[in-house]
Amino acid sequence: MPKVFPDYREEAKNRVIKESVKFFSEKGYHKTKMAEIADSLGVSKGAIYQYFTSKEELFLEVLKYYIEYTQKELISFLNQSTPEDLSTEEFFDIMFNIEQSQSVETLTILDRLFPPLDFNLAISELVKSNPSMKEEMTKYYMDSINIMTKYFEDYKKKGAIKKNIDTYSLSMGITSLQDGLMAAMQMGIEISEIRKTWKEITKMILKSALSE
């Protein structure tokens, strides 16, 4: 018989979020049912609704979990790397979430490189219907750009980046390149071609930004 969670609110919420990742990853947003998430946790569906009022709210929390994890990976890399390293295999794998799931067992979403098409369609639909979700997603997107902007600003102060370079535009450009290549990956372009393009284009961008 399904049970309720123990009375540890944050721990229970995190369990639901982590368990939900694999369902949203493997089945997409629309086909995922709250009841099956509850069954996999051994609790009643009502127990989940004590922490999340709807599947939409749970989905948003899963997105936050996913984005915060990838941002930590980004910050960790930037803290020990130079701008030239942004064209390396390691940085590509971080930006495109490749093989990171080896370090976090529950993040099976990363086994698929990034959310499947249904997942992205759900984001688009929910952003249009839910203003608060749009604000949250915009915030996380801008946070990633600002993290990179600060990184480039620090190197500009060291003289490694040309003084006339707009570091915000540089960061936005690299992020936009990532977005475009992810779309190409969704269309079926081979990962080897995506990787090659990323390395070549980032080298060209950085060549124009780095001091001689």
Automatic annotation (TrEMBL):
Coiled coil: none annotated. Residues 33-52 bind DNA. Residues 10-70 form the HTH tetR-type domain. It holds the Pfam family TetR_N. The keyword Repeat does not apply. SUPFAM superfamilies: Homeodomain-like. GO terms for molecular function: DNA binding. This is DNA-binding transcriptional repressor AcrR. It comes from Candidatus Methanofastidiosum methylothiophilum.
